[in-house]
Amino acid sequence: MTLLDGKKTSETIQQEIAADVAEIKANGGKVPHLAAILVGNDGGSVTYVTNKVLACERVGFGSTLIRYEDDVTEDELLAKIEELNNDDEIDGFIVQLPLPKHINTDKVLEAVDPKKDVDGFHPTNVGRMVAGLSAYLPATPAGILQLLARYEIETKGKHCVVVGRSNIVGSPMSILMSKPNYPGNCTVTLCHRNTVNLAYHTLQADIIIAAVGIPGLITAEMVKEGAVVIDVGTTRVADETRKAGYRLRGDVDFDNVAPKCSFITPVPGGVGPLTIAMLLKNTLRAAKREVYA
Ligand code: NAD
């Protein structure tokens, strides 16, 4: 069994990006700049956005954090997005989700210029991804592709079972794994909350990608010998022995599943660290005008 080290892979990708930025600077080019809009004070969102801004600093990007209180109006938010769309200094920006209930998330995401949509959530980027055109890919699925590629995991003709169909992970993952290029070219099954007999499907999988948010959902009896298991789940569970008062648990019963696997990601330290690396990569691509040439 090989542990897929997301932390190490993320560091490698960030070093590659930093080297690229150093070269851009040396040639007098424009330093990539990411902006992030954060609404409210939700602990998880604040941590995610802070980590994204710190990561920008690490690789030499410029970064701007724009914060609003929970009671910001939709119009205020849309006006800021319009401003960022037209600001030549900003190469890409993200709106941290979830947004408060009084704000229409779809409307906000659609207001982002697709050329600056480094989260890959705008329908134009989703459509381009589905059509196999150059697009900003959502960071978590893109990170999983990187992990598969950098560990040279065979995917062609394999049966990949994706569990979870969210717009940010499961759904795009299933599409990308079905595409005729590496890593991909799989026969894909997409399972979700209404799937009847989940184990029937996962037992046939050469590759399982679990993105659900139910700790330990995937047990050893549901996994065939030699499978590749990618665990996207990160659920906070109470743990008094930790300083934070919680620890992260994945969707996979790691201790019992790992001995059956050819490759498996740990939680934490698997998929998680790659998400930030791929956001940086998208921002670099935005600055280089690579996606919409
Ligand atoms: P979501 O809540 O939007 O979607 C969960 C999906 O799981 C749904 O499509 C639902 O149909 C499916 N589901 C629910 N119960 C199920 C069951 N019993 N059997 C099969 N499918 C079931 O979640 P999401 O945003 O895709 O996130 C999923 C998990 O991944 C969460 O734990 C989240 O924290 C984590 N996540 C991690 C990263 C990262 O590591 N960077 C990024 C995004 C999400």
UniProtKB/TrEMBL annotation:
<feature type="domain" description="Tetrahydrofolate dehydrogenase/cyclohydrolase catalytic">
    <location>
        <begin position="4"/>
        <end position="119"/>
    </location>
</feature>
<feature type="binding site">
    <location>
        <position position="234"/>
    </location>
    <ligand>
        <name>NADP(+)</name>
    </ligand>
</feature>
<dbReference type="InterPro" id="IPR000672">
    <property type="entry name" value="THF_DH/CycHdrlase"/>
</dbReference>
<comment type="pathway">
    <text>One-carbon metabolism; tetrahydrofolate interconversion.</text>
</comment>
<dbReference type="GO" id="GO:0005829">
    <property type="term" value="C:cytosol"/>
</dbReference>
<dbReference type="InterPro" id="IPR020867">
    <property type="entry name" value="THF_DH/CycHdrlase_CS"/>
</dbReference>
<dbReference type="InterPro" id="IPR036291">
    <property type="entry name" value="NAD(P)-bd_dom_sf"/>
</dbReference>
<protein>
    <recommendedName>
        <fullName>Bifunctional protein FolD</fullName>
        <ecNumber>1.5.1.5</ecNumber>
        <ecNumber>3.5.4.9</ecNumber>
    </recommendedName>
</protein>
<feature type="domain" description="Tetrahydrofolate dehydrogenase/cyclohydrolase NAD(P)-binding">
    <location>
        <begin position="138"/>
        <end position="290"/>
    </location>
</feature>
<comment type="similarity">
    <text>Belongs to the tetrahydrofolate dehydrogenase/cyclohydrolase family.</text>
</comment>
<dbReference type="GO" id="GO:0035999">
    <property type="term" value="P:tetrahydrofolate interconversion"/>
</dbReference>
<keyword id="KW-0554">One-carbon metabolism</keyword>
<dbReference type="Pfam" id="PF02882">
    <property type="entry name" value="THF_DHG_CYH_C"/>
</dbReference>
<dbReference type="InterPro" id="IPR046346">
    <property type="entry name" value="Aminoacid_DH-like_N_sf"/>
</dbReference>
<keyword id="KW-0028">Amino-acid biosynthesis</keyword>
<keyword id="KW-0560">Oxidoreductase</keyword>
<keyword id="KW-0511">Multifunctional enzyme</keyword>
<dbReference type="InterPro" id="IPR020631">
    <property type="entry name" value="THF_DH/CycHdrlase_NAD-bd_dom"/>
</dbReference>
<comment type="function">
    <text>Catalyzes the oxidation of 5,10-methylenetetrahydrofolate to 5,10-methenyltetrahydrofolate and then the hydrolysis of 5,10-methenyltetrahydrofolate to 10-formyltetrahydrofolate.</text>
</comment>
<keyword id="KW-0368">Histidine biosynthesis</keyword>
<dbReference type="GO" id="GO:0004477">
    <property type="term" value="F:methenyltetrahydrofolate cyclohydrolase activity"/>
</dbReference>
<dbReference type="GO" id="GO:0000105">
    <property type="term" value="P:L-histidine biosynthetic process"/>
</dbReference>
<dbReference type="InterPro" id="IPR020630">
    <property type="entry name" value="THF_DH/CycHdrlase_cat_dom"/>
</dbReference>
<dbReference type="GO" id="GO:0006164">
    <property type="term" value="P:purine nucleotide biosynthetic process"/>
</dbReference>
<keyword id="KW-0378">Hydrolase</keyword>
<feature type="binding site">
    <location>
        <begin position="164"/>
        <end position="166"/>
    </location>
    <ligand>
        <name>NADP(+)</name>
    </ligand>
</feature>
<dbReference type="Pfam" id="PF00763">
    <property type="entry name" value="THF_DHG_CYH"/>
</dbReference>
<keyword id="KW-0521">NADP</keyword>
<dbReference type="GO" id="GO:0009086">
    <property type="term" value="P:methionine biosynthetic process"/>
</dbReference>
<keyword id="KW-0486">Methionine biosynthesis</keyword>
<comment type="subunit">
    <text>Homodimer.</text>
</comment>
<keyword id="KW-0658">Purine biosynthesis</keyword>
<dbReference type="GO" id="GO:0004488">
    <property type="term" value="F:methylenetetrahydrofolate dehydrogenase (NADP+) activity"/>
</dbReference>
